[in-house]
Design brief:
This protein has five helices and six strands; from the N terminus they run βαβαββαααββ. By secondary structure, the chain is α/β, with parallel strands linked by helices. The strands form two sheets. Strands 5-2-1-6 form a four-stranded parallel sheet, covered by helices on one side. It has a two-stranded antiparallel ribbon with strand order 3-4. Strand 1, helix 1 and strand 2 form a beta-alpha-beta unit. The longest helix has 13 residues. It starts with 19 loop residues before the first strand and ends in a 7-residue tail after the last strand.
């Protein structure tokens, strides 16, 4: 019996086929949308998933400004950050972070609200910092990634 044919195949960065997908965030709840996007970024919807390999897809989120938060979370939820100095604890709301996304000085494809939410759903290590770079968020319906020929997926069909 040839036992070498029963070796377990582990994916690596060269063997993974990455795709580009477009997700429309219009009338989607922010947390539910981001949890599905986190699974796509990790590659959990693929058969070749491995927790220590970057095997997910690149995600483009359009119409990010039309996302919903249930209840009064847009004004009442508080996100805390710390500058590192005494008395440097800062508090912000999703409403303020959403307004910052319209700032012209921010890098294109960067939305502070989505980055804040997605960082909580990805691993807190080097892999998580690499995965967050595969997410591109735009407030309007246009995006500059047409050359990658992304496919449009309906986020409501994913589990």
């Amino acid at each position: 019996m040839d036992t070498l044919s029963y070796r377990t195949l582990f994916p690596n960065a060269q063997s993974v086929e990455k795709e580009w997908v477009v997700i429309d965030a219009t009338d989607q709840v922010l947390g539910r949308l981001c949890s599905k996007v986190a699974k796509i970024l990790r590659g959990k919807y693929k058969a070749c998933y491995s927790p220590n390999v970057e095997c997910g897809d690149n995600v483009i989120i359009i119409n990010a400004d039309k996302v919903l938060l249930t209840g009064k979370k847009m004004t009442d939820r508080e996100y805390l950050s710390y500058t590192g100095y005494p008395g440097g604890q800062r508090m912000t709301t999703p409403e303020v972070l959403m307004r910052k996304s319209f700032n012209k000085h921010l890098k294109a494809g960067y939305n502070p609200l989505y980055v804040k939410v997605m960082k909580g759903m990805l691993p807190k290590n080097r892999l998580g910092r690499r995965l967050i770079e595969n997410m591109h968020v735009y407030n309007g319906p246009q995006h500059p990634h047409e050359a990658q020929s992304p496919k449009v997926i309906d986020i409501n069909t994913l589990k």
